[in-house]
Amino acid sequence: MKVARAILDGVITFALVFVVSAIVSYIYSLIAHGTGTFDWGTAVRLGIILGIALPYLHARQRKEGK
């Protein structure tokens, strides 16, 4: 897997996970606590972790398929 492709996959995954995690934390906060606040720290951490792990696993799966 080329480095540029891996970085692009990681950035795209990070962005998607970050947005979804932020929205979910806002909705949870709104329903459970009655205040609509974002949990930015959790959204960033989850985005970084899954932004690294998911593209790696996807590349490994593609490599095994060949």
Structure notes:
With 66 residues, the protein is mainly alpha-helical. It has one domain. Helix content is 86%, strand content 0%. The chain has two helices and no strands. It has helices at residues 3-33, 40-65. The two termini are 12 Å apart.
Key traits:
elongated; 66 residues; mainly alpha; 0% strand
Question: How are the SSEs ordered, and which strands pair?
Answer:
Elements: H1 3-33, H2 40-65
Helix pairs in contact: 1-2
Distance linking N and C termini: 12 Å
Q: Output the structural class.
A: mainly alpha
Order of helices and strands: HH
Number of strands: 0
Biggest sheet architecture: none
Low-confidence stretches: none
Based on Cα principal axes, name the global outline: elongated
Rg is: 15 Å
Number of helices: 2
Estimate the helix proportion, in percent: over 70%
**Number of discrete domains:** 1
Which percent band covers the strand fraction? under 5%
- Overall pLDDT confidence: 92
In short:
The protein has 66 residues and is mainly α. It has helices at 3-33, 40-65.
